[in-house]
Amino acid sequence: MEKYYDNTKYYHLIPLIMMIVCVPLMVHLKVVPLSGPSYLFWNGQQQNFDFFSYYKTVWINIFTVFAFIMLLVKFYENGKNFVRKSYDYYIPIGIYSLFVIISTLTSEYKEIALKGFPDRYEGMYILLAYMIILFLTMNLVEKEDHVKAMIVSLLIGATIIGLIGLFQYMGYDLWKTNIGKSIMIPSKYMLENDKIIFKFNKYEIYSTLYHYNYVGSYMAMLFPLTFSMFILIKNKKVKCILALITLLMAINLIGSNARSGIIGTVFAFIMLLIVMNKYIKRNFKYFLSGIAVLIFIFLGLNVTSKGAVANRFKSLLTDVKEITQDSDESLKEISKLPLQGIEVSGNAAKIITPTETLILKEEDGGVIFNDVNNNKLSLEAIKETGEFTIKSSNYKNYRMQFVRIGDENIFVIKKDSIKLYFKIANNEIKLSDNRGNILKTEPVESWGFKGKERLGSSRGYIWSRSIPLLKNTIVKGYGPDTFAAYFPQQDFKGKMYAYYGDMWQIVDKPHNLYLQTALSTGILSLIALLALFGMYIVKSISLYFKSEYDDFLSIAGVSIFIAVCGYLGAGLFNDSVVSVAPVFWIILGTGIAINHMISQEKKLNTKM
């Protein structure tokens, strides 16, 4: 006899609900010892003091395992048909997962590829967990009440995140209070809690999501979702609750100052206008009232922050304007940078600036200095600091000394914002970093954004140096989260311009979800993901374009579709991170499940 399966049960969803509510809220210190590549490509510290990512990854894996167990329980209870035959989605999921594994196994830095880079921890285990989460959500969410449970859970978590963010904006940061510190700092480190330095101040929202950019990605999902539901839900009591949550989400979206979130929201609203245009025309008062409230929030937050919000938005318009403008002024500024180039060959190195060229050579175990004409320069010792200076007036701002880094003697040369490290041994000079790692000195490849490297908070620079790397990742990538290892960190001149003099800025992410995927797991894996997103978008538009939105499933389905579009839009300027990505994959899985339910219902109605 075939087993009867009661799909009214909710306990199957508990791990997914816990993930969507609890994971984004986790903030707790983990001191992670660094060694090998994780140390080599980090900032010189031997420990990573992580508050926002490490424990999130631990619990993502734990909840994923329990969710998979729930699927097995469902199989035991149901006996068969426990997995939907959604092969059009399973194929890109499988292809992407395959290339994640291949890119990890073939990576030069397997340790990073498996576990992820410091502060991010989005290695193979987590990327595969995302795909499992998506698959499980598609198959565990089976009916309208399940959808309601998922959305209510999502809104509970979002409300808590939003309230923390609201108070941060007003200058009352939970994590700076004794209660907050007791939550995020283990007891054995509490005596040193006064040493914690907070990067963000009043009028900046990072909530529990690590950085305001990721608040932007989160709110690019949540604000369009709650706004859409506010427009469509007819129950007045629920509409009032949604109005308050939407208001809170809007405050966090604008207050985060994340331009990526605004761009994602604009894209979401374009999709909203496309699929809901007929409904909006008939019920324009709710739509217009929502837009009016959004404008009011913008003005209110701008007044509160003394113009900071408007200035942030102006910078977005400035970026748009800069794209079309001639870059001659930027190129002139680049030509005047303190450091114009470094040439290293054999036992000699040449430091080129706009005003002079300094040549250092290794001779008989010592270092001599010449000017551009190979005239020898005399040195003078500074006893107080152990440094040397050059007597010539043209080189008076240079300071040099030997320092011990690990087991290596490193020669350091400083001039104003220039700080260079050289390893000198065996009649050879090599450029190194502040940890003694040898750096490449060949010309750095770039593509596009010439003179526009500061575009989008230096995203123009990152993209211009990242795109040339794609020629090596057509089939497989460098490995998950290994971006920092392959980005040309030795591009001092480019960094000095892009980061306003900071030549040692560590670039550990591409600030673009799609570029991140193509470099980490390969262009073919990116195509698989784009196929997955494309199928969902096309299916959603076909289902909701002519919908009357007279039932909860269609309301939830279109709202989730708009939320997914918001995240994908923000992904043009933000990366995938463990604080936000699990929520996105569960939302996407829920959206796919809803589309399946609506399609099945339409088929049944057609047959009747």
Kindly describe this structure.
With 608 residues, the chain is an alpha+beta fold. It has 2 domains: 11-186 and 212-319 and 510-607, no CATH class; 336-432. Helices cover 53% and strands 11% of the residues. It has 22 helices and 13 strands. It has helices at residues 14-22, 36-40, 54-78, 87-105, 110-115, 124-140, 144-169, 178-184, 212-232, 236-255, 259-275, 277-282, 284-304, 308-324, 328-335, 455-466, 483-486, 492-498, 513-521, 523-544, 552-570, 581-607, and strands spanning 30-33, 47-50, 341-345, 348-352, 357-363, 366-370, 376-377, 379-382, 387-390, 399-405, 408-415, 418-425, 428-432. It has a 5-stranded antiparallel β-sheet with strand order 3-4-5-6-7, with no helix packed on it. Helix 3 (54-78) runs parallel beside helix 6 (124-140), helix 9 runs antiparallel to helix 10 and helix 20 (523-544) packs antiparallel against helix 21. The chain is elongated and about 90 Å long. The model is unreliable at 1-6 (pLDDT under 50). The chain crosses the membrane at residues 12-32, 52-75, 87-105, 125-142, 149-170, 215-233, 240-256, 262-280, 287-305, 513-538, 550-570, 576-598. InterPro entries: WaaL-like.
How much helicity do the residues have?
40-55%
Q: How far do the termini sit from each other?
A: 28 Å
Whole-number total of structural domains: 2
Number of helices: 22
Sheet-strand content, in percent, reads 5-15%
Structural class: alpha+beta
Biggest sheet features: 5 strands, antiparallel
Shape: elongated
In round numbers, the mean pLDDT is: 88
The number of distinct β-strands equals 13
The spatial strand order of the largest sheet comes to 3-4-5-6-7
Q: Oligomeric status of the shown chains?
A: single chain
Instruction: Work out the radius of gyration.
Output: 27 Å
Stretches where pLDDT falls below 50 for ≥5 residues?
1-6
Keywords: Ligase, Membrane, Transmembrane, Transmembrane helix
Protein name: O-antigen ligase family protein
InterPro entries: WaaL-like
GO molecular function: ligase activity
